[in-house]
Amino acid sequence: MDLFEYQARDLFESHGVPVLGGAVAFTPDEAEKAAASMGGRVVVKAQVKVGGRGKAGGVKLAESAADAREKAQAILGMEIKGHIVHKVMIAQAAPIESEYYLAILLDRANRNFLVMASVAGGMEIEEVAHTSPEKLARVGIDANAGISPELALDIVRKGQFPADVEGQVADVLLKLWAAFVAEDATLMEINPLVKTSDGKVVALDGKVTLDDSAAFRHPGHEALVDHAATNPLEALAKEKDLNYVKLDGQVGIIGNGAGLVMSTLDVVAYAGEKYKVKPANFLDIGGGASAEVMANGLSIILGDPDVRSVFVNVFGGITACDAVANGIVQALSILGDKATKPIVVRLDGNNVIEGRRILNEANHPLIQQLDTMDGAAARAAELAAK
Length: 386
What we know:
Layout: H1 5-14, E1 22-25, H2 28-38, E2 42-46, E3 59-62, H3 65-75, E4 79-80, E5 83-84, E6 88-92, E7 96-107, E8 112-118, H4 125-131, E9 136-141, H5 149-158, H6 166-182, E10 185-196, E11 201-203, E12 206-210, H7 232-239, E13 243-246, E14 251-255, H8 258-275, E15 281-284, H9 291-302, E16 309-316, H10 321-335, E17 343-349, H11 352-362, E18 367-369, H12 373-385
Parallel strand pairs: 14-16, 16-17, 17-18
Antiparallel strand pairs: 1-6, 2-3, 2-6, 4-5, 7-8, 7-10, 8-9, 10-11, 10-12, 13-15
Helix pairs in contact: 2-3, 5-6, 8-12, 9-10, 10-11
């Protein structure tokens, strides 16, 4: 789960990472009140989970509370890279002397964590790595050993930070690591980390990604979810404990096992080139799915207005084909007249004969059975094109 900037700021503050004053505002009036409470100049920043806010006009300096109201009025409702701005962050402005970069992330390739630190902040870190690699320290972190004060200082020196801020930056890194571990994050980035005119080092902007797989350990993380931006079908699937991701195609996909579902996406994408259609979703009902799970999954896909046909591709193992067939029949019975889209079914494996018999006897006009994955994918794509 990616956090908004204001959420990242609050999370940093809760773990002792130094930050400037900040508040979220959903209306111009709220922006004015927040700015008035801080006093002096503030920065009004669009809260969207994409980069390029500044270039799009989504970050503006306000000289007063009244000015903050006007700036918020201009930013709220604007579109930045397809994202509508529904809220702004009012951040305390401060004179900046230097900008740095600091981040901790999960390094999947090396199966550990990675700290990146650079004296060159305020720009894309990829640009620093390309143009001035000597200014970017990249240090692997063992999960068991963590980051000691000595290692933190060594990383800061490798990042070529000035001697007068080494101690402060090392302290920020230690607190950032503590936050990273405590919150089960996969990314915590401060860009820029700044030195203000009074010599203090503070986090000015941040990105945080939390591991959804660890959500059960963090009941408080639910409050950070942006329900307004969550696809309603994905939210419903989550309630049903289904692994569902909405895509931008027309052929609904259901399979058992992530590997089979991904293979199905590829086959449908290939078959769909002829008909100019694509997969509409990823939906894995799992290895031990019951008829109820199958029914829930099919109901979600049939509720997607973009879906024109459905391809159910199941290789029976723990999930027997007869359970899948019963789930399909059950879902269509529950949906009744609401089910109007053709369903192409390919069953193989455990109890396949019984599964096919159940579907044949149901004799539902929406169901078509094919024996091969390629043939079923082609038929589903053809039906979606009609």
